[in-house]
């Protein structure tokens, strides 16, 4: 194995060991009946906007879902915009309790027979520090459900919660010696002191970093930039996701998705669950 290829493989393995986001080979639980293979690269952006939040994504085998949260009167409500807030649509009722029930029913995993943690990306829309403290309280109530960090060590659970959104959440998270969530970094965090045990995921805006939107071939400089980002992240045991990629069905979207797959990007962002499922199945993703 060439040195560069070996470093990338070790980086991917380090990410798997750091936060439990394993490759299919590492994730397969030996023995017993297996359910459908989860799509490790499928990320349900704005998951809560689907008719059946969480469950539609799981039916399409997505292994990462995103929920936007607001701290309102001491509880965490799920919505994209304040006008859509509904006291009945809480993080607990839409995600935490259903995931806990599913893991119990599936003998310790989100997908039966596949011990690859589901990523729950939680995007904080209100002031980050206060919202995170309530989130931390709610996550801790579900003992054994979430991947945890304690005194320098990561313990993998059926679900890995990653906190995104308002950057003020970072300070209280870094101050904790034990926590039930991890931090979603940005490209500016690449190469910094933040370890994968705190920042396992690097996310950024595709359109703010690349001009190519799938028409014609990707410029050579942008392809090199993309692969350099992925290589740098994987060498540190971190995964990569871009939001604001083209998401209208057609050849441009497929071209971008194919380029992301070829570069080793870990999560493909979409609101089109069936479309990405079909694409990944066709491309062995």
UniProtKB/TrEMBL annotation:
Signal peptide boundaries: 1-29
The UniProt record lists the keyword Chaperone: no
SUPFAM superfamilies reported for this sequence: PLC-like phosphodiesterases
Gene3D superfamilies listed in its UniProt record: Phosphatidylinositol (PI) phosphodiesterase (3.20.20.190)
Statement: the UniProt record of this protein carries the keyword Lipoprotein: no
Record's keyword terms, sorted: Signal
Protein name: Altered inheritance of mitochondria protein 6
Protein's organism: Streptomyces kunmingensis
């Amino acid at each position: 194995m060439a040195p560069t290829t070996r470093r990338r493989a070790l980086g991917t393995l380090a990410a798997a060991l750091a936060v439990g986001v394993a490759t299919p080979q590492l994730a397969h639980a030996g023995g017993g009946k297996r359910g459908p293979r989860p799509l490790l690269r499928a990320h349900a952006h704005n998951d809560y906007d689907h008719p059946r939040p969480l469950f539609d994504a799981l039916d399409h085998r997505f292994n990462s879902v995103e929920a936007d949260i607001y701290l309102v009167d001491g509880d965490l409500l799920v919505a994209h915009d304040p006008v859509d807030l509904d006291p009945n649509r809480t993080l607990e009722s839409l995600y935490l309790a259903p995931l806990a029930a599913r893991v119990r029913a599936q003998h310790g995993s989100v997908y039966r027979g596949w011990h690859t943690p589901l990523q729950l990306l939680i995007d904080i829309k209100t002031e980050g520090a206060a919202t995170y403290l309530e989130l931390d309280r709610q996550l801790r109530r579900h003992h054994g459900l979430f991947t945890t960090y304690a005194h320098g060590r990561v313990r993998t659970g059926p679900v890995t919660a990653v906190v995104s959104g308002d950057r003020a959440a970072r300070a209280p998270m870094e101050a904790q010696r034990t926590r039930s969530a991890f931090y979603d970094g940005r490209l500016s965090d690449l190469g910094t002191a933040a370890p994968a045990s705190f920042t396992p995921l690097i996310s950024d805006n595709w359109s703010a970093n690349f001009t190519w939107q799938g028409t014609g071939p990707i410029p050579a400089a942008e392809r090199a930039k993309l692969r350099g980002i992925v290589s740098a992240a994987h060498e540190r045991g971190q995964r990569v996701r871009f939001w604001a990629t083209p998401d209208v069905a057609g050849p441009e979207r497929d071209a971008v998705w194919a380029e992301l797959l070829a570069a080793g990007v870990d999560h493909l962002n979409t609101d089109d669950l069936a479309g990405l499922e079909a694409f990944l199945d066709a491309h062995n993703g």
